[in-house]
Amino acid sequence: MISNVYRKIMVATDGSEPVRRAVERAVEIAKISGAKLYAVYVIAAGGLSIPSYPKDVGWERATLEYFRTEGEEATAYVENSGKAENIEVESVILEGNPADEIVDFAEKNDIDLIVMGTLGRTGIQKFLLGSVAENVVRHAKKAVLVVRGETV
Q1: What global pTM score does this model have?
Q2: Does position 39 have pLDDT exceeding 60, yes or no?
Q3: Closest Cα to residue 39, out of 22, 58, 54, 52?
C-alpha cells in the first residue's frame, strides 16, 4: 500500500553500525510510503582542529578529505539499501554543525520525516558535539523518528 503521508524522508547517517538500524527503518518507511529518501552526512566543521594548536592547512585538508570519503561511504550504504528496495535515494554531504545542518536541510527541502539513530559517535566526539539527535528533536519543525542503535 502506497501512502502520501511521507513524500520526502531524510536519514542522517554517520556510517556507524548503530546508525544502520535507523537506515533500515528509513528504507522501510520510504518503501511503504513511496517516498524519496535523502541520505545526509554532515562533516562537523570547526570540530576538525584543536584551537590550542597552530593551524596546518595540509592537515586540515587531509582531515576534510578523510571525512568526505567517510561521508561518501556512509551515504553509499543508504543508496545501496534503497536501491535494493527500488527506492530513489539522493546523497548529500554537508559541512557545519550537524544538528543545525540537518534541521536546515529538512526545512529547505520540505522533508516530511527526519530519521536518525541515538548512537553513533561516542566518547570525546559525543562530549564535544553534544547529542545531535537531541538537538534535532528540540529544534526541528518536521517530524523526527529516533531509532535506538542497539536492542534492549
Answers
A1: 0.83
A2: yes
A3: 22
